[in-house]
């Protein structure tokens, strides 16, 4: 579950950063994809490190 949350937060952050820097639609799409992948990976590592309840 954390990996999906990380991906969604990363995608939102990427879209916001690219929009804030006045990027084109392709820039926004690339920032969104890259930061979503990074957020997914961070969420996956967090799930591996946290003990299950």
Low-confidence stretches: none
| Number of helices in the DSSP assignment | 2
| Helix and strand sequence | HH
Please give the radius of gyration in angstroms: 13 Å
Distance between the termini: 14 Å
Shape: elongated
Keywords:
single chain, 53 residues, elongated
Overview of the structural elements:
The protein is mainly α and 53 residues long. It contains 2 helices and no strands. The chain has helices at residues 2-20, 25-49. It is elongated.
Provide a short characterization of the protein structure:
The protein is mainly alpha-helical and 53 residues long.
Task: Map the helices and strands.
Blueprint: H1 2-20, H2 25-49
